[in-house]
Amino acid sequence: MACRKVFTGSKRKLVLAFDLGTTFSGVSFVVLDPGNVPRIQTVTRYPGQEAGDTKIPTIVYYDKDGHPVALGAEEPPLPEDTEDDDEWQAEPLKLEWFKLLLRPGTASLTLNEDIPAPQLPGKKTIVDVYADFYGYLFRCARTFIQETHTAIGALVWESMQDDIEIVLSHPNGWGGPQQSTMRRAVIQAGILPDTPAGRSRVTFVSEGEASLHYCVSSGLLSNEIEAKKNMMVIDAGGGTVDISTYSFKSAEPVKVEEIAPPNCLVEGSVIVRHRAEALIRGRLVRSKKFSAEAYIQAIVQEFDKVAKKRFKGTADANVKFSNLINDRDVGAGIRNGALKLTKDEMCSLFDPAINAIVNAIEDQRTAALAHGSVQTLFLVGGFASSEYVFERLQSHFGGCGLTAQVYRPDAHANKAVAEGAISFYVDHHVSARVARWTYGTAIKVPYDPSIPSHAQRTHRVYKDATGTYMLENAFYPLIQRGTQVAETEDFSRTINFHSPKDRKDTDLTSIIFAYRGSSDILPTFLDEDEDSFVALCKVSSTVHDVPSVDGYLVGQPTYYFDHYGVQRKAEPAYRMQTVDIVISFGLTELKAHMSWVVRGKKQRSPASVIYEDDFAITVPG
């Protein structure tokens, strides 16, 4: 286990980490006391389930008015009996898997037809639902801490509540739009104030990086931590599988660098369940008794709890859903209250996910070759409890001369993300990350008919304020995919804005794009591979803050003689303003701003960063 440093802050602080998962969620926390070594803890008491469990189902029940009536493991209230038919109460709407509604519009995260698409109730937005669940996790954490930590108590909680920091974990493939939505939900839940200071108390971490920190802080990597050794973390969860590859730069203190672009697949355990439900429905459609929805759901739930985890790929599976021996339908494969699924049927439920995971791991190992081979793979997360998944990965990477060892923690590390998120905040082992995409902005370029890509766009040529023929929407990269980025490192490009002298503009604006295409040759213009460009955010500054230089059109006289014969300076035709577009990754959140020079000193704008929508499914938000 890595040695943790004493907290050197001036006052006590509470940090909460919310792991809102597709199927299960949890909270970990740390109380930072000046002069003491931080100790990471996890909430193990929630309403509706036995004490000791570290996670609750990610489920919300809503009434007809959109109010949450039960969350997590709580049982929803039953409709009340009434003699008045007009007073009939509908059963609460069960909402689950809503996390997947936030996934980006990346092809690898959208093309899987087995991804469930839950419907939000009534007028609820995705921010509302996230706020409801974050608020519930916060209340559960507050109660747990107040009731179990006598050294803290209610009074001490109140003294710390203005300094609470929140760490939110999310899949590797998520970015600014998702982070912005999650931050809004925390504020809407009333956990933090809607002020610049309040918003700054939210920190984000990818689930892959959180899992790495868990493996280090819990001692799971104690035999693997040595300088220049590489390892991979596969966080196989309910909805997504996050794959991250790292290299240890030093063992004491532990310093780690990411060495390959992280990956994210929507191939978690809920996708296997979704395939199983489709298979079971098809099998039972002609059964007079077992085609009823209650039986189908009972069988699916039993598959999810037992058969999915125990299946090893060597035998048929019997999904036991009833203890009644007369629960049988031989034609449907049901005997003695158990549905038989053949080995081939079971494999067909898992194999698409496993094959995708294997391919993604191979891609990561190839991308990391410049830093040496990756021989240690750590499998964590809820889906890691599947024996078949573990056996397939172990067989593939442990054999065929690949000499990679797949490890799985005994406890399946279902709390890896929540505790790892706190370790990320406290220990901060990762000092460099790899850009997952190529990031840049759109600029105007002088038209040159001798360049084929320009000649193809002759119909888009226009004359700008300087009198030069130009083309818009040329892609100007700031950072290339695969570039290793230090936390303190900025990437910038200089851009000149030209505008007519008499225009009353109020802002200089630039849009940051991510290129997600597979081509090694970057497109010159945004419309060359339009579907692979995503507008991430808009950064702007007030035009009056940036110094300008007057300019004249080509051939325009700079002086003229008035009717008295006096030489006078001609009115400039345009103004030019020069700024640097700067992006940084900070911790795990992309940020952008503009900067410029005034009297030899660099100025930085209080830039407004507005994230564009980037969701696989259009949902109210």
Q: Can you describe what's shown?
A:
By secondary structure, the protein is α+β, with helices and mostly antiparallel strands. It folds into 3 domains: 196 residues, Nucleotidyltransferase, domain 5; 194 residues, ATPase, nucleotide binding domain (Nucleotidyltransferase, domain 5); 174 residues, no CATH class. It is built from 11 helices and 33 strands. Strand 11 and strand 12 form a beta hairpin. It is globular. The mean pLDDT is 88.
Structural key phrases:
621 residues; alpha+beta; Nucleotidyltransferase, domain 5; 3 domains; 8-stranded mixed β-sheet; 6-stranded mixed β-sheet; 33 strands
Give a brief rundown of this model.
The protein has 621 residues and is α+β, with helices and mostly antiparallel strands. Helices cover 23% and strands 30% of the residues. The protein has 3 domains: 13-208, Nucleotidyltransferase, domain 5, CATH 3.30.420; 219-412, 2-Layer Sandwich (Nucleotidyltransferase, domain 5), CATH 3.30.420.40; 438-611, no CATH class.
